[in-house]
Write a structure and sequence with these properties.
DNA polymerase, domain 1; hpI Integrase, Chain A; 4 domains; three-stranded antiparallel beta sheet; 14 helices; 47% helix
Length: 400
Protein backbone atom coordinates (compact mmCIF):
# COMPACT_ATOMS: atom_id res chain seq x y z
CA UNK A 1 0.00 0.00 0.00
CA UNK A 2 1.37 3.38 -1.01
CA UNK A 3 2.23 5.86 1.73
CA UNK A 4 3.23 9.47 1.42
CA UNK A 5 4.33 12.75 2.95
CA UNK A 6 3.98 16.42 2.05
CA UNK A 7 6.93 18.80 1.85
CA UNK A 8 6.66 22.59 1.66
CA UNK A 9 8.65 23.99 -1.27
CA UNK A 10 7.69 27.64 -1.37
CA UNK A 11 4.76 30.03 -1.18
CA UNK A 12 1.66 27.86 -1.70
CA UNK A 13 3.89 25.17 -3.26
CA UNK A 14 4.13 21.64 -1.87
CA UNK A 15 5.81 18.46 -3.02
CA UNK A 16 3.96 15.18 -2.58
CA UNK A 17 6.23 12.21 -1.92
CA UNK A 18 4.74 8.71 -2.19
CA UNK A 19 6.51 5.45 -1.45
CA UNK A 20 5.31 2.57 -3.66
CA UNK A 21 7.27 -0.19 -1.94
CA UNK A 22 10.17 -2.22 -3.33
CA UNK A 23 10.32 -2.91 -7.06
CA UNK A 24 11.48 -6.04 -8.92
CA UNK A 25 15.05 -4.71 -8.96
CA UNK A 26 15.08 -4.53 -5.17
CA UNK A 27 15.00 -0.73 -5.08
CA UNK A 28 12.38 1.52 -3.50
CA UNK A 29 9.84 2.97 -5.91
CA UNK A 30 8.83 6.58 -5.31
CA UNK A 31 6.51 9.00 -7.05
CA UNK A 32 6.69 12.77 -6.64
CA UNK A 33 4.43 15.60 -7.68
CA UNK A 34 4.51 19.35 -7.02
CA UNK A 35 1.14 21.00 -6.37
CA UNK A 36 -0.34 24.33 -5.31
CA UNK A 37 -2.00 24.38 -1.86
CA UNK A 38 -2.81 27.11 0.64
CA UNK A 39 -1.80 25.08 3.69
CA UNK A 40 -0.69 21.64 4.87
CA UNK A 41 -4.26 20.42 5.30
CA UNK A 42 -5.07 21.16 1.67
CA UNK A 43 -1.76 19.65 0.57
CA UNK A 44 -2.57 16.47 2.52
CA UNK A 45 -5.91 16.21 0.76
CA UNK A 46 -4.11 16.42 -2.58
CA UNK A 47 -1.66 13.78 -1.34
CA UNK A 48 -4.52 11.39 -0.55
CA UNK A 49 -5.95 11.97 -4.01
CA UNK A 50 -2.51 11.37 -5.54
CA UNK A 51 -2.16 8.08 -3.63
CA UNK A 52 -5.65 7.02 -4.79
CA UNK A 53 -4.73 7.69 -8.43
CA UNK A 54 -1.50 5.73 -8.08
CA UNK A 55 -3.23 2.77 -6.40
CA UNK A 56 -5.94 2.67 -9.08
CA UNK A 57 -3.67 3.19 -12.05
CA UNK A 58 -5.20 6.56 -12.92
CA UNK A 59 -2.02 8.59 -12.69
CA UNK A 60 0.55 8.81 -15.48
CA UNK A 61 3.51 11.18 -15.31
CA UNK A 62 2.79 14.24 -17.48
CA UNK A 63 6.08 13.88 -19.32
CA UNK A 64 5.06 10.44 -20.58
CA UNK A 65 1.32 10.52 -21.18
CA UNK A 66 0.03 10.70 -24.73
CA UNK A 67 -3.21 12.39 -25.77
CA UNK A 68 -4.86 9.10 -26.75
CA UNK A 69 -4.13 7.65 -23.28
CA UNK A 70 -5.24 10.77 -21.44
CA UNK A 71 -8.61 10.70 -23.20
CA UNK A 72 -9.37 7.45 -21.32
CA UNK A 73 -8.58 9.14 -17.98
CA UNK A 74 -10.69 12.19 -18.86
CA UNK A 75 -13.58 10.01 -20.03
CA UNK A 76 -13.86 8.34 -16.59
CA UNK A 77 -14.42 11.81 -15.17
CA UNK A 78 -16.70 13.06 -17.95
CA UNK A 79 -19.06 10.06 -17.81
CA UNK A 80 -19.99 11.06 -14.25
CA UNK A 81 -20.80 14.64 -15.26
CA UNK A 82 -22.77 14.46 -18.52
CA UNK A 83 -25.55 12.40 -20.08
CA UNK A 84 -25.03 9.10 -21.88
CA UNK A 85 -25.98 10.77 -25.17
CA UNK A 86 -23.36 13.48 -24.66
CA UNK A 87 -20.68 10.86 -23.99
CA UNK A 88 -21.69 9.06 -27.17
CA UNK A 89 -21.36 12.36 -29.06
CA UNK A 90 -17.95 13.00 -27.46
CA UNK A 91 -16.76 9.53 -28.53
CA UNK A 92 -17.96 10.10 -32.10
CA UNK A 93 -16.17 13.44 -32.36
CA UNK A 94 -12.96 12.16 -30.73
CA UNK A 95 -12.70 8.99 -32.78
CA UNK A 96 -13.57 10.74 -36.03
CA UNK A 97 -11.04 13.59 -36.26
CA UNK A 98 -9.43 14.57 -32.97
CA UNK A 99 -7.69 11.35 -31.90
CA UNK A 100 -6.26 10.59 -35.38
CA UNK A 101 -4.81 14.13 -35.40
CA UNK A 102 -3.39 14.24 -31.84
CA UNK A 103 -3.19 10.58 -30.80
CA UNK A 104 0.52 10.09 -30.12
CA UNK A 105 1.45 13.63 -29.12
CA UNK A 106 2.42 14.05 -25.47
CA UNK A 107 -0.05 16.20 -23.54
CA UNK A 108 2.64 18.64 -22.46
CA UNK A 109 3.85 19.04 -26.06
CA UNK A 110 0.46 20.00 -27.54
CA UNK A 111 0.35 23.73 -28.26
CA UNK A 112 -2.33 26.18 -29.31
CA UNK A 113 -0.88 26.03 -32.83
CA UNK A 114 -1.58 22.28 -33.03
CA UNK A 115 -5.16 22.86 -31.93
CA UNK A 116 -5.76 25.80 -34.27
CA UNK A 117 -4.34 23.71 -37.11
CA UNK A 118 -6.82 20.94 -36.27
CA UNK A 119 -9.80 23.31 -36.28
CA UNK A 120 -8.63 24.94 -39.52
CA UNK A 121 -8.41 21.48 -41.10
CA UNK A 122 -12.02 20.82 -40.14
CA UNK A 123 -13.03 24.10 -41.77
CA UNK A 124 -11.06 23.29 -44.93
CA UNK A 125 -12.76 19.90 -45.10
CA UNK A 126 -16.13 21.63 -45.24
CA UNK A 127 -17.53 20.77 -41.79
CA UNK A 128 -20.32 23.05 -40.60
CA UNK A 129 -19.60 25.82 -38.10
CA UNK A 130 -21.73 24.09 -35.46
CA UNK A 131 -19.79 20.81 -35.90
CA UNK A 132 -16.46 22.63 -35.62
CA UNK A 133 -17.65 24.30 -32.44
CA UNK A 134 -18.51 20.87 -30.98
CA UNK A 135 -14.92 19.77 -31.65
CA UNK A 136 -13.70 22.93 -29.91
CA UNK A 137 -15.91 22.23 -26.88
CA UNK A 138 -14.60 18.67 -26.49
CA UNK A 139 -10.98 19.81 -26.73
CA UNK A 140 -11.61 22.62 -24.27
CA UNK A 141 -13.19 20.20 -21.81
CA UNK A 142 -10.24 17.81 -22.00
CA UNK A 143 -7.52 20.44 -21.58
CA UNK A 144 -9.37 22.26 -18.79
CA UNK A 145 -9.49 18.96 -16.91
CA UNK A 146 -5.81 18.28 -17.62
CA UNK A 147 -4.89 21.72 -16.25
CA UNK A 148 -6.95 21.26 -13.08
CA UNK A 149 -5.30 17.89 -12.51
CA UNK A 150 -1.82 19.38 -12.97
CA UNK A 151 -1.19 17.04 -15.90
CA UNK A 152 -0.13 20.13 -17.89
CA UNK A 153 0.98 23.51 -16.59
CA UNK A 154 -0.87 25.68 -19.10
CA UNK A 155 -4.10 25.19 -21.01
CA UNK A 156 -3.30 25.62 -24.74
CA UNK A 157 -7.01 26.07 -25.55
CA UNK A 158 -6.96 29.48 -23.83
CA UNK A 159 -5.19 30.89 -26.89
CA UNK A 160 -7.62 29.31 -29.37
CA UNK A 161 -10.59 31.44 -30.40
CA UNK A 162 -13.96 29.73 -30.06
CA UNK A 163 -15.55 29.22 -33.50
CA UNK A 164 -18.84 31.03 -33.91
CA UNK A 165 -21.90 29.28 -35.31
CA UNK A 166 -23.51 31.05 -38.22
CA UNK A 167 -26.59 30.26 -40.26
CA UNK A 168 -26.60 31.55 -43.78
CA UNK A 169 -29.53 32.76 -45.86
CA UNK A 170 -31.42 29.96 -47.50
CA UNK A 171 -31.28 27.65 -44.50
CA UNK A 172 -34.63 28.86 -43.19
CA UNK A 173 -38.11 29.55 -44.54
CA UNK A 174 -39.61 33.00 -44.90
CA UNK A 175 -43.09 33.66 -43.49
CA UNK A 176 -44.66 33.30 -46.93
CA UNK A 177 -42.79 30.03 -47.54
CA UNK A 178 -44.06 28.67 -44.21
CA UNK A 179 -47.62 29.54 -45.26
CA UNK A 180 -47.18 27.66 -48.55
CA UNK A 181 -45.68 24.66 -46.73
CA UNK A 182 -48.61 24.59 -44.29
CA UNK A 183 -51.07 24.40 -47.20
CA UNK A 184 -49.30 21.30 -48.47
CA UNK A 185 -49.04 19.75 -44.99
CA UNK A 186 -52.78 20.26 -44.44
CA UNK A 187 -53.40 17.66 -47.15
CA UNK A 188 -50.89 15.11 -45.87
CA UNK A 189 -52.13 11.60 -45.14
CA UNK A 190 -49.64 11.16 -42.27
CA UNK A 191 -51.24 13.78 -40.03
CA UNK A 192 -48.96 12.98 -37.09
CA UNK A 193 -45.74 13.73 -38.98
CA UNK A 194 -47.30 16.83 -40.54
CA UNK A 195 -48.24 18.07 -37.05
CA UNK A 196 -44.69 17.44 -35.76
CA UNK A 197 -43.29 19.59 -38.58
CA UNK A 198 -45.85 22.33 -37.94
CA UNK A 199 -45.04 22.42 -34.21
CA UNK A 200 -41.32 22.68 -34.92
CA UNK A 201 -41.92 25.59 -37.28
CA UNK A 202 -44.30 27.45 -35.00
CA UNK A 203 -42.77 26.86 -31.53
CA UNK A 204 -39.01 26.54 -32.11
CA UNK A 205 -38.96 23.35 -30.04
CA UNK A 206 -36.10 20.92 -30.54
CA UNK A 207 -36.92 17.56 -32.13
CA UNK A 208 -36.09 15.64 -28.94
CA UNK A 209 -38.37 17.95 -26.95
CA UNK A 210 -41.29 17.42 -29.33
CA UNK A 211 -40.91 13.63 -29.32
CA UNK A 212 -40.73 13.64 -25.50
CA UNK A 213 -44.02 15.50 -25.02
CA UNK A 214 -46.58 13.71 -22.86
CA UNK A 215 -50.31 14.32 -22.71
CA UNK A 216 -50.01 16.06 -19.36
CA UNK A 217 -47.45 18.50 -20.79
CA UNK A 218 -50.10 20.07 -23.04
CA UNK A 219 -52.53 22.39 -21.24
CA UNK A 220 -55.29 23.64 -23.51
CA UNK A 221 -56.91 25.75 -20.78
CA UNK A 222 -53.77 27.90 -20.41
CA UNK A 223 -52.80 27.39 -24.07
CA UNK A 224 -49.28 26.35 -23.04
CA UNK A 225 -46.93 23.42 -23.63
CA UNK A 226 -44.55 22.55 -20.78
CA UNK A 227 -41.13 21.33 -21.90
CA UNK A 228 -39.78 19.14 -19.11
CA UNK A 229 -37.92 16.41 -20.97
CA UNK A 230 -36.08 15.53 -24.15
CA UNK A 231 -36.05 12.11 -25.81
CA UNK A 232 -32.56 10.67 -26.07
CA UNK A 233 -31.07 7.46 -27.48
CA UNK A 234 -27.72 5.71 -27.05
CA UNK A 235 -26.66 2.25 -28.17
CA UNK A 236 -25.70 1.29 -24.62
CA UNK A 237 -28.84 2.46 -22.78
CA UNK A 238 -31.51 2.71 -25.49
CA UNK A 239 -34.25 5.36 -25.29
CA UNK A 240 -34.41 7.59 -22.21
CA UNK A 241 -36.25 10.67 -21.04
CA UNK A 242 -33.61 13.15 -19.95
CA UNK A 243 -33.61 16.73 -18.77
CA UNK A 244 -33.58 19.25 -21.63
CA UNK A 245 -30.33 20.59 -23.07
CA UNK A 246 -29.82 23.34 -20.47
CA UNK A 247 -31.48 24.50 -17.25
CA UNK A 248 -33.16 27.27 -19.25
CA UNK A 249 -34.59 24.67 -21.63
CA UNK A 250 -37.19 23.71 -19.01
CA UNK A 251 -39.83 26.20 -20.07
CA UNK A 252 -43.32 26.82 -21.43
CA UNK A 253 -44.20 27.65 -25.01
CA UNK A 254 -47.44 28.90 -26.51
CA UNK A 255 -49.70 26.52 -28.42
CA UNK A 256 -49.96 28.24 -31.82
CA UNK A 257 -53.52 29.32 -32.49
CA UNK A 258 -53.60 27.69 -35.92
CA UNK A 259 -52.50 24.35 -34.38
CA UNK A 260 -54.70 24.40 -31.27
CA UNK A 261 -57.57 22.34 -32.73
CA UNK A 262 -55.29 19.93 -34.61
CA UNK A 263 -53.21 19.20 -31.50
CA UNK A 264 -56.31 18.78 -29.35
CA UNK A 265 -57.84 16.36 -31.86
CA UNK A 266 -54.57 14.43 -32.13
CA UNK A 267 -54.27 13.87 -28.36
CA UNK A 268 -57.96 12.93 -28.15
CA UNK A 269 -57.40 10.27 -30.82
CA UNK A 270 -54.38 8.95 -28.92
CA UNK A 271 -56.46 8.64 -25.74
CA UNK A 272 -59.14 6.75 -27.65
CA UNK A 273 -56.50 4.49 -29.15
CA UNK A 274 -55.15 3.65 -25.70
CA UNK A 275 -58.62 2.74 -24.45
CA UNK A 276 -59.18 0.51 -27.46
CA UNK A 277 -55.82 -1.29 -27.36
CA UNK A 278 -55.50 -1.62 -23.55
CA UNK A 279 -52.66 -4.09 -22.82
CA UNK A 280 -51.21 -3.53 -26.30
CA UNK A 281 -50.46 0.09 -25.40
CA UNK A 282 -46.77 0.78 -24.66
CA UNK A 283 -46.40 3.43 -21.95
CA UNK A 284 -42.96 2.69 -20.53
CA UNK A 285 -41.92 6.31 -21.15
CA UNK A 286 -45.40 7.69 -20.41
CA UNK A 287 -48.33 8.57 -22.65
CA UNK A 288 -46.57 10.33 -25.49
CA UNK A 289 -48.24 12.91 -27.71
CA UNK A 290 -46.39 11.52 -30.74
CA UNK A 291 -46.02 7.76 -30.82
CA UNK A 292 -46.31 4.66 -33.00
CA UNK A 293 -49.60 3.40 -34.34
CA UNK A 294 -50.63 -0.25 -34.32
CA UNK A 295 -50.38 -0.42 -38.09
CA UNK A 296 -47.55 1.25 -39.98
CA UNK A 297 -49.12 2.61 -43.17
CA UNK A 298 -45.88 3.03 -45.13
CA UNK A 299 -44.41 -0.42 -44.44
CA UNK A 300 -47.71 -2.28 -43.95
CA UNK A 301 -46.31 -3.90 -40.79
CA UNK A 302 -47.88 -4.37 -37.40
CA UNK A 303 -46.09 -2.50 -34.61
CA UNK A 304 -46.62 -1.50 -30.98
CA UNK A 305 -49.20 1.13 -30.03
CA UNK A 306 -48.04 4.22 -28.15
CA UNK A 307 -44.28 3.54 -28.35
CA UNK A 308 -41.77 6.36 -28.76
CA UNK A 309 -40.93 7.33 -32.32
CA UNK A 310 -37.42 6.74 -33.57
CA UNK A 311 -35.42 9.97 -33.29
CA UNK A 312 -34.68 9.86 -37.02
CA UNK A 313 -38.30 9.21 -38.00
CA UNK A 314 -39.20 12.90 -38.60
CA UNK A 315 -36.06 13.41 -40.71
CA UNK A 316 -36.68 10.31 -42.82
CA UNK A 317 -40.31 11.23 -43.38
CA UNK A 318 -39.36 14.82 -44.23
CA UNK A 319 -36.86 13.67 -46.88
CA UNK A 320 -39.51 11.47 -48.53
CA UNK A 321 -42.02 14.31 -48.26
CA UNK A 322 -39.71 16.77 -50.04
CA UNK A 323 -38.98 14.27 -52.82
CA UNK A 324 -42.64 13.36 -53.35
CA UNK A 325 -43.90 16.96 -53.29
CA UNK A 326 -41.16 18.35 -55.54
CA UNK A 327 -41.62 15.56 -58.08
CA UNK A 328 -45.28 16.54 -58.34
CA UNK A 329 -44.50 20.28 -58.50
CA UNK A 330 -41.94 19.67 -61.22
CA UNK A 331 -44.46 17.61 -63.20
CA UNK A 332 -46.94 20.49 -62.85
CA UNK A 333 -44.26 22.97 -63.97
CA UNK A 334 -44.47 24.85 -60.65
CA UNK A 335 -41.70 26.26 -58.40
CA UNK A 336 -40.11 23.61 -56.21
CA UNK A 337 -40.42 23.61 -52.43
CA UNK A 338 -37.27 24.83 -50.66
CA UNK A 339 -35.54 21.99 -48.79
CA UNK A 340 -34.83 22.95 -45.17
CA UNK A 341 -33.49 20.49 -42.59
CA UNK A 342 -35.68 19.63 -39.60
CA UNK A 343 -33.31 21.25 -37.10
CA UNK A 344 -33.44 24.47 -39.10
CA UNK A 345 -37.19 24.75 -38.46
CA UNK A 346 -36.08 26.03 -35.05
CA UNK A 347 -33.96 28.66 -36.78
CA UNK A 348 -36.89 29.52 -39.05
CA UNK A 349 -38.96 30.26 -35.94
CA UNK A 350 -36.25 32.38 -34.31
CA UNK A 351 -35.47 34.22 -37.55
CA UNK A 352 -39.12 35.17 -37.98
CA UNK A 353 -39.37 36.57 -34.43
CA UNK A 354 -36.17 38.60 -34.80
CA UNK A 355 -37.14 39.96 -38.22
CA UNK A 356 -40.38 41.20 -36.67
CA UNK A 357 -38.44 43.14 -34.02
CA UNK A 358 -38.90 40.68 -31.16
CA UNK A 359 -37.22 41.26 -27.79
CA UNK A 360 -33.94 39.36 -28.03
CA UNK A 361 -33.87 38.51 -24.31
CA UNK A 362 -37.39 37.07 -24.39
CA UNK A 363 -36.62 35.18 -27.60
CA UNK A 364 -33.53 33.70 -25.94
CA UNK A 365 -35.56 32.44 -22.95
CA UNK A 366 -38.35 31.18 -25.19
CA UNK A 367 -35.89 29.12 -27.23
CA UNK A 368 -34.36 27.69 -24.05
CA UNK A 369 -30.87 29.09 -24.67
CA UNK A 370 -28.56 29.05 -21.65
CA UNK A 371 -27.58 32.72 -22.16
CA UNK A 372 -28.51 35.63 -24.41
CA UNK A 373 -24.97 35.39 -25.81
CA UNK A 374 -25.91 32.07 -27.43
CA UNK A 375 -28.83 33.75 -29.16
CA UNK A 376 -26.78 36.72 -30.38
CA UNK A 377 -23.92 34.46 -31.55
CA UNK A 378 -26.38 32.32 -33.50
CA UNK A 379 -28.65 34.96 -34.96
CA UNK A 380 -26.57 38.14 -34.83
CA UNK A 381 -26.11 38.05 -38.61
CA UNK A 382 -29.83 38.77 -38.99
CA UNK A 383 -29.39 42.17 -37.39
CA UNK A 384 -28.26 45.09 -39.50
CA UNK A 385 -25.01 45.97 -37.74
CA UNK A 386 -23.03 45.76 -34.52
CA UNK A 387 -24.74 48.88 -33.16
CA UNK A 388 -28.13 47.21 -33.51
CA UNK A 389 -26.88 44.14 -31.63
CA UNK A 390 -25.41 46.35 -28.91
CA UNK A 391 -28.67 48.28 -28.55
CA UNK A 392 -30.70 45.08 -28.33
CA UNK A 393 -28.45 43.49 -25.73
CA UNK A 394 -28.28 46.66 -23.62
CA UNK A 395 -32.01 47.38 -23.79
CA UNK A 396 -32.92 43.80 -22.94
CA UNK A 397 -30.43 43.66 -20.09
CA UNK A 398 -32.11 46.69 -18.57
CA UNK A 399 -35.58 45.24 -19.00
CA UNK A 400 -34.74 41.77 -17.70
Amino acid sequence: MARGTVEKRGSNSWRLNVSMGIGANGKYKRKRKTVKARNKTEATQLLNKFIYELNNGEYVAPSKIRFIDYVDIWRKYAIKKVSHKTIETYDYILNGRIIPFLAHKKMEDITSYHLMDLLETLDSDGLSSSTIQKHYNVLSNIFQFATRQDTIKKNPMLKVDKPSVTYQKGEVYTSSEVDELFKILDNEENEQMALIVKLALKTGMRKGEILALKWEDVNFSTNRIEINHSLSYTKEFGYQMKSPKTEGSVRKVVIPQELHDDLKKHIFNKRQEKLATQELWYDYLGDLVFSTYGHHKETNRLTVFGKQLHLNAPNRWLNRFYERVNNQLEADNKPLLKIVKFHDFRHTFATDLISKGGNINKISKYLGHSTITTTVDTYGHLLEDDKEIEDLVNSNSQSS
